[in-house]
Structures are given as structure tokens and as C-alpha cells.
Amino acid sequence: VSGLAFLLRLVFGMSPPAAGTCTQCGSPAEGSRGGHGDFDGQAYCRRCWHAWEQASLLRSSAAPKALGPKSAGLGGAGPSQADGGAADRTPAAGIGAAGAGAGAADEDEITAQVLDLLSGMQDQQSRTNDKTTLEFKGQWHPKPNGAETGHGVVPKDWALAKVSENDKALATYGWAGGAALCLTNAFSDADHMEAQAQDLLERGHSEDHPQVQCIRALARASEEREAVMRKQWCDIDFQEGEANNQELLQHLERDFATQMVNVASRRRAKEKEDELHYSGGVVSGGASASAPSRRSWWQVKVSGGTAVGKTYLGATMSRQDDFGDVRLAGYDDESGRQRWRLEPNTAAGGDASRAEWFHFRLVGGTSTERRLLAVLPSAPGALPSIGLCSEDEGSGRQRWRISACRRSSAEVSKRTWYLIQPVGRELFLAGDASGRLWLSEGDSGTGRERWLIPHWGDLGPTATAAQAGGSAPSVGPCRSEARHPTDEIAILAARSGSEDAHSLADLTPEEMTAVLNNNRNLGTAIDLVGCYLKNYEIDKADRICQRIEPLCRERGGLWLFKLLNMYSTVRMKQSRHQEALAMYEEYEELIGLEPEEHWELYDTVYRNFGWIHCSIGNHGKAMHYFRRCVEIKKKNGVPPHWFDQWDLGKTHARLSVQKGNFSALKHSLELIKKGIELHQQVEQQDKVMLCKMLNSAGECASILGDYGNFEDSQGWYEEAVRLHRQSYDLYVVTLGKGKPLTGWCMEHLAGACRRLDTQASRQEAKNLMIGALRVECTKDIIKLSAMDRLLASVLELHRDADDPQGLAGCQDAINAGLENLHRRHVDEVEAASYAALLRRVAQVLLAHDAEANRQGAADLLREALGYARKAASRSGGGAGAGGGQRAEVARLLELMAGGRAGGAAQATDARDAPLFTPKAGDQEIAALDPHRLVVDLERQLQQLSQPVAASPASSAHLSPPSSAAVGNRGGGVDRGDVGRAAREDPPLSGGDERPGPQPRPSVARAHEVPVAPLAAAARAPAPSLSAPSAPPPSSALASARGTAVRGAASMPQEEEVWELVD
């Protein structure tokens, strides 16, 4: 019993109640704090404890001295054994000393700059301004005006009795737009014009009649414009509580699925009609034409070297002076002008494998005398141009040779590409960045002379051995019969509950892509991404963006512009800041306007750049961009807005902490509070933004309490609790308890409650921290590092409260978190960090019940050892994990850079690959040496396998992991981690939408014990088995450092609001 008691004290950090006089100052130690390890039996008054806490935030070596001569203040405190003798690093006590010198001077200058920028701020805010027709709602919006601004229009004769059940349900959500949400009330102008074209056909006109073609061209243009502008759904606020928000989102998903089913049905019917027409009603072999065995047309796409939006070999509706008959288009608009029949020469008898040359004939969309691709006559000495003619006059100018080659490059997958040459000439069909078609004298290697004909197949007879790569040729056009039931969009549709949505799973990948590339579906998909972002269902948003990014990149223009804005938002919420920055830099390049031409747009662009740089930690550059937001408005006669007040207040706070001038946080707090007041004048309905601003203010108050005078600290902590509690209560009402924003607020509030240090606040802090852990472990944007931090915080809080049994509340969260990380391949990408996490879980197990969970903890450590050895083998002789997520980011940035060259976008076939699995960034635990981690895990396993002796002395050999292995996470909690605001704006919850292999059973699952709940958590990770040999005293204040201040410290990053530019 005594041996187990000692093990519990050693691992869990329990210490006897402190009593007597303060070891530091000698005053009565009423309400004192007791230590453990080298500090067993010693006590500290609350004033000395607070002073030590201030210093420990500045440097980890600061600690109250053990028994010895008294000294005046912390300056004379000698370093403990845990300090490694770092006596030269003596902290300055209090705000005055910490902020003295250049830091304070710099900060005073920053404060003056911020106040100068905000001069002219109007006390009465308004959404509108006489300098612009737009209105400000966090960003500049056009006032809703039907299809012109991407919103639905409800017809006057619209009646519930005539619509579907889903439309009836959507009509009841008046707070979100009601019947305008229904997709049946969108694209009405295009539908009206299509009906006119159909009426002409019924009167006897053909598809080639100029009137039919003209009306359909206008209908497609109207449809595309409304689709790319669409924002009816992403304008919804989604602040009506978790249940209502989720119910509405499901109806929107169902509406989207129904639209895709309808488009797929119409497309199939049209294809059957076209093939019947082309084959004369009979398909080869005498089969019924109702089930065609081959398609009659193909798309031809340039491989690269052009520009975004210049991809498809196509024709103009009429001859144009600038481009002639043919040009590169961004997508197949279904007019027939981007579809080609590849007709083998007559001697081949229709067999492409024996053809010497082909005709490229348009399916439709032009006059009948402009259908055949041809080399046009040219002046002597000039390269011939490309155009269209009516027939082959035998000169060879309408005949083309096609030779195949296998592409070998750094792309995700290899692609077969073709060289297209006019018969009898050593010239090559090529495209350029303007979309013009011409004949090149050779293959430049840029991709502009290389063409893709999806699903056509290798044309072996015309390919040389070198071109074919020595492989056996496949010949002729081929249609893949393989089905693709795991397409992300098809799965989303099937789960929406829409009738007949399961039919989408029967489409081939090519067919599904064509359905999704329809204007209506593509525009609605982007609109739906905005809904997922607001509901923090980030996995779904990521999957859709991955799926449609190649389609938008081929189209270019506004399509790519809008997609990049949404996709960069997804990456920001996943804390993948470098990818977000690369996307947003491309986004800015696409604007094509000077700031003076559209200052409202640049106001938001500058703000987004500022937020990205804040997330990266470059607060100086962030301040530069936020300054530009104010300056561009002032230049156009518009005063700063409440958003500017908040942005500048937050960045001022971060710079103040970064420079050590903590007293300047009072200015930051005043700026943020003023921003809240201004925000409430015009945006009272925007509760989520209010919550975020309250959180920012609460963080400032917490840090002021940490670094202020002891007499003032309690008041600052009470203010922090008030602000965070107000934010938390609003989050619960508007979003629900399970959303990431609510989880981060729980962590903030827990840290503030712990600082108050009353019995009630300590209990509340425990419950809140476990709640924050549950949210972290179940959300889409789970971070291994955040899970480790929260587990350490929970462990410290329960240790301080002498409540080991309360750790049982972590069991389900731990198991869910490990499965979540496995599903995202984080255990493979960051093996060393995952090993440290497993060790942290083992620590929690032993703290809960050292005897019952001993075997489970040992099994977890063995699993951790396997991961640590794998990480060590990757990293060679140096520290680090040998690439990990940083290598993934480098690869993704490389692929993104390649996509800017234009041409056929590279779709990713292997969506299950770890590289493309949705996951958050910042997974790695900092300062982790995998080699040292292996040594420590081996030692701890050996120590844990020895029987517990009958006396405390026999257990003294259980030492903690070396600080070199796990940084400052060895035994206690990183003082800057507990209650810290998560830096990411996590992915929206919703789960991985694609079925796939389930994560392998974890060791923990294998050791679940029904009677002892936490034993089941043996599935989790944990860093150290015992407390450090000479830790600082186990203080509630020390462990509950909710403000993120690491060493010289950085203020916790606010979750990203991120503006969606429309």
C-alpha cells in the first residue's frame, strides 16, 4: 500500500497540504501553496506564488527556491535542480521591469500609430456609406438583388402545394431566406430561354438553326453568370443553435443532391439522343441504340504551358477577327463547340487502331460549314493558321496524325498525352496563353504542344517505341465500365436523404465529373462550401474543394477566383497557413485591378493577408496589412470601421506581449472593448463575431492579471472570467457545445477560472477542460499537439484537486481522439509526436489508477516505442521527425505551383493517400527529439515492468522523461499551454465523408476494462510516467496558464474569422 501511495505521489504529483510559514518570505502561509518532489513539505504564500508565476512565464528556469536563506523578492531565488543551474537568468518581477527598455519604447510607438490610424472613427457606426453602393457586414457586400447578386428569386405564382417536400421544408426557414433558398427558384432566366429554344425545335427548327443556337448561347451565359455569382446559401448566418443549424444544412445538401440527379438524368438522355443520331439508330454489332457501347465525341485538352481558363480545344460560335474560328476554352459548355468526333481515314474502316490519320469534326454549336478542323492557307514564309471548314477537299489540310506518349513527371499520376500534327508536315498543333491555336515547329516541352484526350487510349501504330515507353499499346477509343462508388460528392449526396441520389454512385468517374462541372452544380458546390465553413464541417468543405479545384482551375476567371477564396479559408481553418498564403497570393494575382479601382475589395484582401500573417506569427507584417485597410478607406473618404478597431486591438496586444511590454495590454483591451461597442450598434444579430471579440478581450485581461501587481491580479482574473463566460454562453446558444469555437472558449474560460483559485472555480475549470478535450478529439480539425496539451492540462487540474477518479471522464474523448488521428494518418506523418501523445495517455492511466492500469500503460508505451523508433530511423542522426507534415506541405505547394501553368488540371486519383486526407496543420509537438524519446521510452518501460516495492524508496527509480526528449512537457504542463486559445480556426465537424478502411484497433481498445472506466483509455498516448525529479510546486495558477505566453511569450491567436470575398 505504501509503495502504491508513493507511486501515485510520484506520477500524479500529489503533495501534503502546505502549512506554516512561507519558505520564500517567512510570512504566515495562510492559503499557501505546497510543492512536491524537491519541494515536499514546503509552503509558499499566495503573494510569492504569484510573483514566481510571473517570472516562470518569462523563463522556464524560474522557480521558488527550496529551503535556504531568505532573499528579497525573486531576484535572489537560487535555481532549483530542475533549472540545470541557470542562475544567470533572473526574471524581473512585475510589469514595470518586464516592459522596461526598448520593448516599452517600441510599444509606445506602436500604440501611438494605432491610435493615429483610428482617429476619425465614428462613434455611431453604419453599414452604408455615401462613398460606395455596397454595405459593410464584416466585409463589403452588394445589397441582395436576385440573380444579379447570386440570390434566388421567388416567383409570384410560387405555391407550397406545387413543390417538393424538401422545398416546403426550406420555405419554413424564414431567418435564412425561406423559399429563396430553393434551387428550383434559381436559374429562372436560363430556364426561360431554354424553354424558348425548345419551342423553336418543336416548331421544326433544327439544333443547327441560328436562332436556336443564339438563344441557347444566351441561356448558357445567363446560367454561368448566376452560378458563379451564387451566394444565397453562404450568406446564411447559421446562429440558431446546433440542432436548427444542422437541420437546415441537411436540407441544403438534399437540395444540391436533387439538382445533381436531375442534371445527370438530363445529360444521359441527351447523350443517348446524340448517339442515336450519330449512329443512325443502330450501334455497332446490331445492339439497341438505347444502350450505346461507345461514345461519339471526345474532349481534347492542352496539357499545359498556356494559362488558367485556356484548356479545351474549341470553336467560337462565329468567326472572330482576333481568334478566327478556333480557340482554347475553359470548359465544355455542352454546346458542342468543345466536343470533337475523331473520324479515322476511310481505309481503316472505322478502326482507330489502323488509322493513319483522323478528321477532327465538331459535334455542333456552329454553322454546318464550320465543323472540320483544318490548316488554313497562309502567306509564303509564314506559319499557317488554324481554322474550320466544311469538308475535306483532299489537300491534306483537314487530316491530322495523332501519336501517343506516356507522360513521366513529378505529377501525382502519369497521363497519356498526344502530339497532333497535320499530315505531311513536321509541325505540331499548339496553344498559347491567350487561347490562340497555332502550329509550332517542334515540341517545346512546356505542354502547349501536348494534348490530352481523356479515355481515348494509346494509339500504338503511330507511336514510336520511345514514345510508348516500350509498353504494349492499347488502341482506339475506350469507355471505362468501372464504377466509382466512393466519389466524395456522390457519397455526400447519398447521405443527404435525397430520392434517387444513390443513382449518382452508378456514374463513371468521367460522367460524375461532367455532372459536377455543370454550371449549376459547380456554383452550388462552392456556395455549399461556405455553409460547411460556417458550421465547422471542415472535412466536407475540404473534400468538395479538392474535387472541384481541377474544374475551376481549367475554367479560370471568376470560377478560380471564387474557389481560391473558399479553399484558402478552409486551409486557414485547418491551420495550414503556408498553403493558405500560397492560394491567397494567386487569388490576388487574379484580381487584375489596382486598389484605387476597387478599394472595397482590397479592404478585405488586405485584412485576409493580415490574418494569415498573424497566424504565421508575423505580427509586424500583419499590422502593416491592417494599417493598409484603414488607409485605403480613409483615402476614399470612409472612416475606419469596428472590424479595424478589433484587428488593430488584437495585433497591438500580440506585439505588446511579443515585446514584453505587458502594461500596454490595457490599451489593447480598451481598443477591443470599443470595437465590441461599435459592433453592437450595427451587427446585433451577429453573435458569433461578438463571441470572438469577447474572447480577445478576455485574453488581454488574463495576461494583465498574470503580469500585473498581486493586488490587482484578482480583479483582472474576475474580468477575464466575466468576458469568457459571456462568450461561452453565447456560443452554446448560437452554435452548440460541440463546435470548435465553443471548445476553444471552454479552454479559455477554464484557464481564467483556474486563476481565480476558489474551490468553485477550480471545479468548474476541471469540467470545462474535459469538455474542451472532448471537442478537440471529435472535431474535423483535431491537432495532435492540442490533444496532448489539453490532456496535460486536465491531468494537472485533477492533480491539484487531488481527484484522480475524475480523470475517468477523459476515457471516451481519448479513444475518439486516437481514432480520429489514425483516420487522418497523423500517426504515420508525425510518428514521434504520436509516440509522445501515447506516453501522455499512459501518464493519465497511471494517474487514474496505477495498479489497475499498469499493464495498459505498458502496452501503450510499447506501441509508442514502435512509433518513436520509426521516427528516429527517418531523421537519421539529427533531431526532428524526418520531414513529417512539413514534407507534405512542401509537396502540396509544389503541386499548387504546377497548377498555375494552365492546361488540363491534374485530378488526384488516390484520394486515400495521406497527402490528400483532410487534416489540420501544426500536428507536431515542438522540441521533440525522436532519438532521445526512444531512450526514455525504453527506460520507462523497463522501470514500469518492475514490481512496485513495499516502500517509497523502492519506487524512487521511476524517473521522468528527459526534458530534451519532450521539451518542457516532461512532467508538468507547459505554463503557456493550459487554457491557451487554439491558434487554428479548425475544420468544420462532419466526419470523413468517404468510406474507407477503419483505423486499426488501438492498444487501448484491447485493454478496455468495463469496471474501471479509464482503463479503457489505454488506447491513448502520454508523455511521462512520473513527475520531474525537481518540479516547481504544483500550483493551480501555474498549471492553469490559460493565456498563451511561452517564454518571452506570444499571445494566443484568435480563431480565424477570415473574410469570404464575393
What does this structure look like?
This protein is mainly α. It is built from 33 helices and 18 strands. The longest helix has 38 residues, at 242-279. The protein is globular, with a radius of gyration of 33 Å.
Question: In short, what is this structure?
Answer:
The protein contains 33 helices and 18 strands. The protein has 1062 residues and is mainly α. It is globular and about 110 Å long.
Query: Strand order across the biggest sheet?
Result: 1-2
- The gyration radius over C-alpha positions equals 33 Å
For the largest beta-sheet, the strand count, sense and barrel status come to: 2 strands, antiparallel
Number of helices: 33
- Unreliable runs: 1-18, 56-103, 281-294, 408-413, 458-485, 877-882, 950-1062
DSSP strand content:
5-15%
| Mean pLDDT level | 76
Structural class: mainly alpha
Helix content: 40-55%
Spatial shape: globular
Rounded to the nearest angstrom, the distance between the terminal CA atoms is 68 Å
Q: Count the strands?
A: 18
